[in-house]
Amino acid sequence: MRKLLYAGAVAISLLAAGCGGAGDEGASRVANDQLNESQTPEPSEYPSGTTPSATGYSASPTSPVQASPTGPARIDAAPTSLGSVLVGVDGRTVYLFTKDKGGASACTQACAAAWPPVLTAGAPQAGTGVHANLLGTLHREDGTTQVTYNKHPLYYYAKDQKAGDVLGQGLKDFGGEWYAVTPEGKKAKR
């Protein structure tokens, strides 16, 4: 319950900061009060370290959104309607974003809620059908470590519900296009 209150206070603070006006101080004070609580944190109410998203994309057991990874990410290749593509947590398809340049992620904030980055704690592991020499990492602005493949930062799509879903394939979103990634490190073709 405390985490829900905290998330609500942060959302209100962000909304107030974005809108401007006289209510900014009150919202910021509430968020700061929540941040400064020195009580022992409760265990997560969300499975596998998932958290709810303030943008409407649910972080449920069917969503791979991770507040913080608990170990090295494992990337595998699996068959889909697009052919063999890379997958991560629970066999979820991973995507590349054409707006990413120079091995850096251009997907933050609302973009990262809709397209959660594939995060890792430690060096990512190459699973079945994956070329270990193409795996890498980058450090995101928020301090987390994101998995890369063939120098492309990797993401999940929040609307994919189960293993094999490729609902993000070819979408134009957040100023670029999104494609599932082949084991060769290229865009999957439909």
UniProtKB/TrEMBL annotation:
PROSITE patterns assigned: PROKAR_LIPOPROTEIN
Signal peptide: 1-22
Top-level taxon in the UniProt lineage: Bacteria
Disordered as annotated region, ranges: 26-76
InterPro entries found in the cross-reference section: Lipoprotein_repeat (IPR005297)
UniProt KW keywords: Signal
One of the GO BP terms on file: alkane catabolic process
Biased composition regions of type Polar residues, renumbered to the chain: 31-69
UniProt key word Amino-acid biosynthesis: no
Name of this protein: Lipoprotein
Gene source species: Microbispora catharanthi
Classification lineage: Bacteria, Bacillati, Actinomycetota, Actinomycetes, Streptosporangiales
